[in-house]
Sequence to fold (610 residues):
Amino acid sequence: MSLQITILGCHSATPRVNAHPTSQYLEINNRHFLIDCGEGTQRQMRKYNVGFSKINHIFISHLHGDHFFGLIGLISTFGILNREKELHIFGPKGIKEVTTLQLKISKSHAKFNIIFHELSSKKSEVIFEDDKVTVTTIPLNHRIYTNGFLFREKENSRKLHIENVQQYPEIQTCDYHHIKAGKDVVLESGEIIKNEELTLPPSKTNSYAFCSDTSYKEDMVPIIKNVDVLYHEATFLSDREDLAKKTKHSTAKQAAQIALQANVNQLIIGHYSSRYKNIELFKEEASTIFSNVILAETGKKISSS
Amino acid sequence: MSLQITILGCHSATPRVNAHPTSQYLEINNRHFLIDCGEGTQRQMRKYNVGFSKINHIFISHLHGDHFFGLIGLISTFGILNREKELHIFGPKGIKEVTTLQLKISKSHAKFNIIFHELSSKKSEVIFEDDKVTVTTIPLNHRIYTNGFLFREKENSRKLHIENVQQYPEIQTCDYHHIKAGKDVVLESGEIIKNEELTLPPSKTNSYAFCSDTSYKEDMVPIIKNVDVLYHEATFLSDREDLAKKTKHSTAKQAAQIALQANVNQLIIGHYSSRYKNIELFKEEASTIFSNVILAETGKKISSS
Fold:
């Protein structure tokens, strides 16, 4: 199992020639999710070879333009491409009304169903679950109702320790299913072979927490504890902590403090304010607190396995 | 007086890496207009150095996504840039409701007033007029209510023929205003000096007709007769005239037929379907009917004076 994040955009506020607003493509345990959808996301998807037909679930953190103004264009393009599969959109209450009105007014007659999952809870909740992955909200603190999202691979079954199993010719292939499910084996002699002898632990599961936009908010720490990869916004450096507080954003240092407390393996920072020309300064600042920091950069792929 | 068109996007349907949906920046007689606003227009404006603060009037031909999905992002950015000047938006009925809802839901609190001029007439009408320019709608025939726009410089006053004027020492500087306005001069002797002797004709006025999207529609010809520059969509080549008819678009040949009948000086074609890889074919086809054809290309500037 593995996860891979493709950064489609990682800058704040307004799109510029080489600064695209927030959007990420997440592949996790063979699921394909789009997270946030700033203006121009569909162009970025084409540029970085994200297959449009793979996307069945879109998660929108909040309804500021730099996180969702590209959604209507993407949905409209899905229609032009004759999509037929259902599309699930998770986002704050209001997203259905505005999207539906835009589709109506632009006469974008989609043949596919759009299923809106509108969010309004201020508590963390599971909003998606299948046999591979769960997605849980991470309530954030911004100027507008905002959620982060925690994507977690489900535990796989244990793996056969095939060399050990083959030492018991009495064990048949049809027994493997039970063994992988954790059961012991009783031989005809009455001897019990413990499951631990016949299996290996399941492969490691991966988890990814996406947190944008938010002020410094320690109470997210228990929700994201020990995740493999944390994306946490860092709009400012500490020189403008006052502005971060006022606009309900974070500094690179604050993002690193959250990563440290949550004991994550890897921290990605992004959502840089355009006032900073050298984004390496964000890494320098965060690295004084937390060692494994990666700068989000448009087109960058970040993996964990 | 002069006009200059900057093509910000000229492709149809969906944005691609190097194919931007319709938007044009028009400078005419010291006025600055944005025409249509597909997704990504604000990025294109930055790329081609279109000053955001110069834009006070935006004209939207119709509410298909590739002509207006970039509008909300541009308005939102105006707000972030602390714009205070009024913004006038001309477009089909419905544009106010959808824009207002998007602004409300994204909490884009603009300090500036947005004045919507919603259009619903099927007849050509003057929708903007000041001392420099008039803008008139050109009713088009598309799958949705659509207008083209005719931009016309106003006639200037006649110019002083200064050498002739100076032959009459009795004529004072304070008389110039009346002479430029077309009046004759009566000397103290009673002699009448005809205005034609004292003035030269006003400089030529320019006009630009923007027609996208539309099926072949001959009754636009009287409205755009003799314009200097005509932009007419050419989504298809004649090989797919059937598809042009079905989708209410035009072929390159049809665009050229309109240009010929309207006796325009210059024809720009664009809005190419993505099915064609070589847009030179559009010029070849149009040029069999009309000689002065220019292909719209992203970033191209086209002037007339």
